[in-house]
Amino acid sequence: MKFTTSLLLAAGLVAASVSSAHAKIERVVEKSFTVQPGGVLQVNTQGGEIRVSPSGDNVVKVTARERIRASSDAEADDLLKKLDLTIEQNGNEITASAKYEQQPLGFHFGSWPPVNVDFTVTVPASFATNLRTSGGGITVGDLAGKVNARTSGGGIRLGKLGAEVDAHTSGGSVTLDGARGPVKLSTSGGNITAGTVAGEAELSTSGGSIKIESVEGALKASTSGGSIRAAFAGPLKSNCSLSTSGGSVKVTLDKATAFRLDASTSGGSVDAEGLTITLEKSTRSRTQLVGAVNGGGSLLKLRTSGGDIVVQTR
Question: Which residues span the domain enclosing 89?
Fold first, then answer.
């Protein structure tokens, strides 16, 4: 019994030690810079979130929130000595980065790094942004500049943007309120939702559904694990392709839109009631429909291996 009691006591001490070692201590670093419109913001962090929003002046304000796994302020101070935190200005470019020293070989206890840094930044709306994080979400407000965003472990939330957008995540969903320029959105593990896109749109996911409320340019959308919903505004200006291996495809167009339809499914039916379509030879069946709509035009190619295809007009 004494041996068992000793084991229980030792286990309790270990548990207490683990709990203490995972206590969170936060430190905040803030810097502000006077800039001119049309600059660039570069942000790179390990294991932290990035939030960027527009300001009402020509000042960039950077707030770095250091989240430290330490049991005391003294331990936190020691851990921060190994953090390379940079917040600086070079002309009209602002750089904010946080990088912890390389993980020691053989280190397996707990998560690494022991310090994560979240960045919250306000910039003039005209700024372009280049954002990178290896373990957190990215949020961008209504900006007019180009947006490039990458994360390996979180979702991406984008507002109404005025220029080109390129965003990718390996572990979350992507949401875009709207964009005036071309858009490229991709994820390996979530849904993609977009509002109005004025330029070309390329959307791809390996593990979710895709929905775009209104696209004015070419659209290429593909998913291996969900449905696709897309609405086109105005004429079909160039060839478009929508494909999924695991869901349905639904497209909405203006009634007078002229295009060539090539729709095929292996696991459902094709429904295009209401279209004025000239069929190509031997192409009308329950699972396939190919022909010219309103005289023909750019190609609209629709494919699914696991659901129905619906083309409707408004």
Answer: 22-124
